[in-house]
């Protein structure tokens, strides 16, 4: 178990629940779950955002995209890892996300095992810093 605080953002309730269950198995810290990209972005603009050690976020959401949330995070926390989930990993998205400092990606549909493995590696790196 890693003692880190994780923020999860996805407008799809099924994916959000799956992500939350996987993260619960990996971390002992706080897990903040947002189904609204507007509320997630507002949270990142608040002083409370400083307590987040990892953001897991969908790319395509109504109102505010995952790229915009990544951009907001980089204003407040330049070094906080950002794990993006996307159903459409286009070249343009990858380039834009890398330019903004995305840490890693996973494409939908993903298996729980694949996601657990990627997050475990990322959480191990976070725990070492």
TrEMBL record:
Keyword vocabulary terms for this entry: Phosphoprotein
Signal peptide start and end residues: none
Coiled coil location: none
Claim: Iron-sulfur is one of the keywords in the record: no
SUPFAM superfamilies, per the entry: CheY-like
GO BP term (any one): phosphorelay signal transduction system
A Pfam family recorded for this sequence: Response_reg
Gene3D superfamilies in the cross-refs: 3.40.50.2300
Domain Response regulatory per the UniProt entry, residue ranges: 5-123
Listed InterPro entries: Bact_response_regulator, CheY-like_superfamily, Sig_transdc_resp-reg_receiver
UniProt modified residues of type 4-aspartylphosphate: 58
Name assigned to this protein: Chemotaxis protein CheY
